[in-house]
Structure formats: structure tokens, C-alpha cells
Amino acid sequence: MRRKSFEDMNCPIAQSLELVGEWWTPLILREVVILRSTRFDEIQTGLGIAPTVLARRLKHLVDAGLLERRQYHDHPPRFEYLPTEAARDFRPVLEALARWGRRWTPATDG
Amino acid sequence: MRRKSFEDMNCPIAQSLELVGEWWTPLILREVVILRSTRFDEIQTGLGIAPTVLARRLKHLVDAGLLERRQYHDHPPRFEYLPTEAARDFRPVLEALARWGRRWTPATDG
What pTM value is reported for the model? Predict the structure, then answer.
């Protein structure tokens, strides 16, 4: 990503963006927290995101403490991503964003 | 920006990110809506952002209907960016993000 790091900015909005501001991340959190899609394949289908991009973003979210990775099938290996308390607590942000979107963006009903 | 467009996704969160999801944008809105810094130079100093990047993001926000550009000085020409109703209405999103950041990111007090 071509961007300056916000880590040194002493502002909770900047710090939040540092953790979850990347473009796809809020939509991945929407899948996991609101739509309860936790399996890699479900999230990938839900978003129409490239698997390599999704794998990278999920790893970032696991490292950031927002998701917990768990294997739910052995052969072949399959993984799901469970929201932590930090991720569940992000729900009001997604809801505020959705309310804003319903009012100020082209007609949506998601 | 290396990203897929969310314009075709029928979801208010995706549509909102399409308008304001870019990395710097929420911080620019924070300057204008919460800190009431409306002049180009103030915003630039507040964020420590490169002037060319800021100019591009401000133009995007004007085109998206979130800011209104107004010249406040003639010689030399100086511009300020006033929040529209859509931008002011984004405040709850910023506040939700700030609450989350205070709880889940390294100590901040902004």
C-alpha cells in the first residue's frame, strides 16, 4: 500500500485506520461480524475478492488481534476465521458507515 | 490506488467506502468536521500530508459532494474547504471509529 503509516499519530481515528483502515478490511469484518460468514470460501465468494488478497488481509487481521484462525477440516485442510471481542466491538462502526451509506450513496439495500 | 471498485456492490458499507474509504479521507473529514480546520494550509499542517496528495484527496471530496471549495483570499489565491451536510453527517462514523480506537489501539488521547 502506498501510504504513510499513521502509527505515530496520536489520534484514535488514525490508530484505528492503521489497524483496520485498509480498503477491504471493513468489508471482511462485515462478512465475519454481521453476516457470520467465517469460512475462507464463504468470505471469498461473498466479496468476490482474489484469494491471495483475501489470505493476506485475513493474516493481517489475525496479527492485529481481530480474527482467530481455526482449522475446521483436516483433509483437505480448511480454515475459518472467528471474530474476537475487538472485531465484534467494531460493529457500531460498520453500522454507522451503513447508515451514512444508505443516506448519502446511490440506492443500496444491503 | 490498487483496488477493485466497489461501485457495483449493492451494500451501503461498500458504497460508503467507495466514496470515503480511501485511507486519508476519514482523517481529512476529521480535520474539517471535528477540528474545524477548513483551510488548505491548516489541514496540511494538521495531517503532515504531502500537498499534492492533499490536493488530490480534497478534489475527490469536492467531486463526491462532501466538501465545498471556496476562495477566501485573492492575492495570493487561498482556498478553504467547507463541509457539506453529507460530510457533517459523517461525524457519527468518525466518533464510532474514535471510540473503537480508544478501546482497541495503543494509547491515544486525540
Answer: 0.83
